[in-house]
Amino acid sequence: MGGGSHGGHDGYAPGPALLVPLVIFWVYLAAALRQRGPGGGWPHRRTAAFGAGAGLLAAGLALPAGGFAAHAWQHLLVGMLAPLGLVLGAPVTLALRSIDRRRGRALVRLLRRPALAALAHPVTGLALTTGGLYVLYLTPLYRATLAHPALHHLLHLHFLLSGLLFTWSVAGPDPGPHRPRVPARLVVLGVAVAAHAALAQLLYAGLAVDVPAPPEQLRAGATVMYYGGDLAEIALALALLATWRPQVGHRRVSVGPVSIRR
């Protein structure tokens, strides 16, 4: 994105990073095609969702250099929209169906670990995604990413991983033994919407933020964050409600060679 004084990254080039979405989709597609059999194959809607997520990730990484507005678009694509598609592709379920029983049980044991319960909670995802944005824009951290390309790439990695975690903890179709009930997840999502909108308003007004960009760039980026973020969060809420099945107590879900209590 443009020069440091304009809130962008001089000479930014995605380089090998663009191989990431290509490779992960190739691996996913290969596993999905192996699911063909008498009982039916892997759902096409899952493959389409994952492919869309990989495409949005590639678009975000390949976005041409620009000002702060381009940065906001990258955050929207890499940190919000791409994770939604990737998570709705149910890659963990596909992995459990693709590996043998022994490895599947080892993966299930990993999913049940108490430490993973805290990591996979929506509140943790909220702190890493929206909370991370407050740290980025209200401290000198964003300014530092302008001067250090490696830090800029780490920022993209944080956008992606924290976005995947938050999306999965709220509306992931994959098994989630420690995931709270839907009403609690909706409350966390509502907090995320409000906090994200408040930060966009601070950026629009140029209040309390440490972003070295001219006012018009701040306003353009804040507009992308405000309206684009709303659309992404509405899509996440719809994905959650679409998969909501009221249940009493726990039920056991079979996933390939193993089963998980949900």
Structural class by helix and strand composition: mainly alpha
| Topology, number of strands | 2
Strand order of the largest sheet: 1-2
The mean pLDDT is 86
Strand % is under 5%
Reported for the largest beta sheet, the result is:
2 strands, antiparallel
Q: What is the C-alpha radius of gyration, as a whole number of Å?
A: 19 Å
Number of helices: 11
Low-confidence stretches: 1-5
Shape: globular
Secondary-structure element order, N to C: HHHHHHHHHHHEE
N- to C-terminal distance: 44 Å
Helix content: 55-70%
Would you mind describing this structure in some detail?
With 262 residues, the chain is mainly alpha-helical. The chain is 68% helix and 3% strand. It has eleven helices and two strands. The protein has helices at residues 19-33, 44-62, 68-88, 91-98, 101-111, 114-119, 122-138, 141-147, 149-171, 182-205, 215-242, and strands at residues 252-255, 258-261. The chain has a two-stranded antiparallel ribbon with strand order 1-2. Helix 7 (122-138) runs antiparallel to helix 9, helix 7 (122-138) runs parallel beside helix 10 (182-205) and helix 10 (182-205) packs antiparallel against helix 11. The longest helix is centred in the last third of the chain and has 28 residues, at 215-242. The protein is globular and about 60 Å long.
